[in-house]
Amino acid sequence: MRDESGSSKLVLEEKKAIKLFLWLFYIFYFAFELVYYYLDPLFTKKGKIGFPHEGLGIWLYVLVLGLLVPGIYIYKKGNPYVIKYLYVVGYVIFTMIDNLITYWGNSKPFASGSIVEVLFIVFSPIFINKKYFFVSSSLVIGKFVLLGLILQDSNTIPPIIIYLIIVAIASIVLLRFYSYIGSLKKVYEDLRQKEKLALVGQMAAAVGHEIRNPLSSLKGFTQLQKERYPDTNEFYPIMIQEIDRINLIVNDLMYLGQPKNIHFSKEGIEEIIAYTLSITQQQAQRQKVIVETIMEGPLPPIDCDGKQLKQVFINMIKNSIEAMPAGGKLKINVKVFGENKLLISIQDEGCGIPEEDIPNLGEPFYTTKKDGTGLGLMVTKQIIKEHNGEIKIESILGKGTVMKVVLPIIQL
Ligand code: ADP
Ligand code: MG
User: Fold this and answer.
1) For the CA atoms of the chain, what is the radius of gyration?
2) Of the residues 313, 314, 319, 394, which should be mutated to test ligand 1's pocket, given the most ligand atoms within 8 Å of the CB?
3) Ligand 2 mean position, distance from CA 369 (Å)
4) In this structure, are residues 163 and 137 in contact, taking their beta carbons and an 8 Å threshold?
């Protein structure tokens, strides 16, 4: 989750976290030592008052305080991520040496541990870093396991059990943090996507609007020329076809910018499919694609916006034809599906789509084609969603693709 080389914002967060951590560390550390060696013996009249002279004695405190020197140096260098490791490793090594000097080779029962060890584990979630959590927990627990083995003292077992319980609790906290941050990230990404779409939509609508009118007069004049000189120029049909192509793209663009006003009326799916085939027919012929349409039927009229559904099937059929540059068969099958649904499947024998790319389909501008726009499927998906329908994509690489559209016959 955390990018260790991270942006300056993340470095700032880490600096805040490490400052908080260091304050807590030193306050808890010295408060604990004070209570343990001064206040507790003072009130309970048990044990000697004063800091211990065994082990590293006062030197332990000097060493722990001394960690501030490399700590501040690293902090100033702008790499605060390392400091937490420095502390946990330093602390564990120093106390380990201290314990070994104190308990090695004598029969004194082992009694050690400090509140800061709890702190290392309990506060590790503030760094939102699984690696650190793992390192700090295993170092602290590992220290007691190792001491237990070296000193052959079962008094190390209770702290191990307590720390294991704390690790379990802290790991729950950490996982909650992770899942919370995960959903925040998702919300943020959704928002960004929406903003991107809104911007694209506005631009698209403006551009589409500007292109539309000149385009229709261009088409009108070309048609006129063609009629006037029917035998002289073989390019006119191509010109008209290309203008139609631009028109389709402009339609997709315009759709993005429109406020979604959808007009449902009862329309026959046969006519809608027939219209889309008439639009795509030329391209299919050029690419030697044979279209086979099966209407399993009597098919009831459906509640839909006919103009928009035409766009859906034009987009899908065009994609299928484009996926078969060397020709092939395109099967369109329409049938009633379940109680109140219509299933339209469009199957090609084209290049297919790699499985890992399927989730990208319908992302704005996602295209694998040299002259693709990556808008077709996006518009398609939106229109189908507005019709409360569903789209399923199955594809085998090199074999072909089936796109299944399920639409409710009656909008409830
Ligand atoms: P465009 O057609 O402009 O590339 P689309 O949104 O229509 O944009 O399609 C996006 C991408 O999805 C295509 O570039 C292609 O990689 C893939 N795709 C869509 N339909 C098919 C299909 N029937 N066969 C293979 N790939 C397809
Ligand atoms: Mg397309």
Assistant:
1) 36
2) 319
3) 9
4) yes
Rounded-to-integer distance, Cα 135 and Cα 411, Å: 57
Q: Which residues contact 75 (CB under 8 A, 6 or more apart)?
A: 15, 18, 83
The amino acid at 120: F
Summarised one tens digit per residue, pLDDT across range 86-141 is 999 999 999 999 999 999 888 888 887 788 888 888 888 888 888 999 999 999 99
- The neighbourhood of ligand 2, an ion, using CB within 5 A, equals 319, 376
Domain boundaries, the chain: 2-152, 265-408
In a mutational test of the pocket of ligand 1, which residue from 252, 351, 361, 384 has the highest number of ligand atoms less than 8 Å from its CB?
Answer: 361
Question: Which residues line ligand 1 at a C-beta cut-off of 6 Å?
Answer: 315, 319-320, 323, 348, 350-353, 361, 366-369, 372-378, 401
Q: Tell which residue, 174, 79, 95, 194, has the closest CA to residue 127.
A: 174
Contact assessment for residue 320 and residue 247, using Cβ atoms and an 8 Å cutoff: no
| 3-state DSSP assignment of residue 292 | strand
Q: Is the pLDDT of residue 283 over 50?
A: yes
Atom of ligand 1 nearest to the CA of 403: 23
pTM of the model: 0.57
Task: Tell how far the Cα of 367 is from the centroid of ligand 1, in angstroms.
Answer: 6
- Among 102, 116, 99, smallest CA distance to 23 is for 116
Distance 220 CA to ligand 2 centre (A): 26
Q: What spacing in Å lies between the alpha carbon of 174 and ligand 1's midpoint?
A: 41
Q: What is the mean pLDDT of the chain?
A: 88
pLDDT tens for each residue of 227-262: 888 777 778 888 888 888 888 888 877 777 666 678
- CATH fold of the domain at 265-408: Heat Shock Protein 90 (3.30.565)
User: 2 pLDDT band (50/70/90 cuts)?
Assistant: very low
